Amino acid sequence: NGIADILFGDANPAGHLPVSWPHNSAELPLYYNHTLTQAPEDAPGFTSRYWDALSTPLYPFGYGLSYTTFSYENLKLSQAEARVGATLDVAVDVANTGNRAGDTVVQLYIHQRAGSASRPVRQLKGFQRIALQPGAKQTV
Fold it and tell me: Residues 57, 19: contact at Cβ < 8 Å?
């Protein structure tokens, strides 16, 4: 009864997209961790016969739905800056603010501002799936 259970609310979906989902096939390729040069939303009035669609996806990488809601607060870092070769511990409090039990996938993204090699704009560095009852809170 998999799909029927989800449609009728008997099961609470918690999956997240492993890819970015474009508005249509003309927007391909669409990567979650790379920006395109001169995206129209970044340059009002810019037109191109090669590319003039918005670069924001319909559903971004990591997007997911649930029949409950979650809040994230109290982000804590073990140090103010990440250093080469050093470990940076990250923690965040996640609370189920809805009225149903549910799972969520806590995702950690990183961005390197400068370096000797070009890095992706945004990179998924870690994730953890957690299950929370209504009103429950967990530090991840």
Answer: no
